[in-house]
Amino acid sequence: MTIDLRNKVVLITGASSGFGQDASRLFAEEGCKVVLAARRLERLQELASRIQDRGGEAIAVPADVTNRDEINVMVKSAIDLYGQIDILFNNAGFGRLSWLERLDPDRDIETQIQVNLTGLIQTTRAVLPYMLQRRSGHIINMSSVAGWIAPSTYSIYSAAKFGVRGFTDALRREVQPFGIRVSGIYPGPARTEFGQHTGNHPMKHSVLRKYFRSMTSEYVAQRVVDLARRPRRAVIIPWYYRIALFADRTMPWLVDWIVIQFLTKKKHRSAAS
Ligand code: NDP
Questions:
Q1: Is the pTM of this model over 0.85?
Q2: CATH 3.20.20.70 fits 9-272, yes or no
Q3: N or C: which end of the chain has fewer CB within 10 A?
């Protein structure tokens, strides 16, 4: 089934850069009305103006997804203006990747879980009643390949992204009978501002890196729009990560060996210190 995206109202968190920014532009090009949310308002306003200059419809709403009042204002702004939210793209997130004992308990642990997992859950909870009322809607949750396979130094990031996957699966089964679709998207590495926030970690120094080319942000954003057009349970990109997922499920000892060999050995630990 293919859905016509014209005139759909799309709320996008984390719209100020990376996947969220590109997806906002692409949704607008499809004729959607896009509600752009993130903390950096100037960036959102700039993006909204660019979309409007090209004949699209967009509004910028400042929101920190760790703040429930701001989430409510964000959702209310979309409803007050457009009367409905057809698609929620829960995308805001960041990763702080390091050895657990070196992660800051507040900024790197609490906040990472709050933004990547709790914020996504609270945003969904705020939007859901409007979708239930209309018996229609699509929620697209941004997880990661790290929501299936947890490499060393990804402990908190993976905890959050595994959580997003669990939440996505449970919610899909909860709301599908009421006409609401819930999908998870699970990308591997892509070139965005994400790398500016991760800190120094062994993946940055690993030989594995040269075998895994990063995707462009636009490519991931195109897959998000495609998912909105043809809703599915899960999209894992690039395709070859499905092999790694299969290996992790069926031969966890092999994945342990590879991760320890290439990412966790003493030399990597000192390289990433
Ligand atoms: P970027 O750093 O480019 O974008 C992250 C976005 O999240 C920004 O718009 C940022 O906006 C927003 N954000 C961060 N914290 C908050 C907050 N507290 N409240 C509201 N918005 C917030 O990274 P990506 O585009 O790569 O990341 C987007 C999503 O994709 C994340 O969930 C990430 O985990 C996931 N992902 C990324 C991969 C990659 O390799 N790049 C791979 C797999 C998944 P602002 O700072 O203005 O608030």
A1: yes
A2: no
A3: N
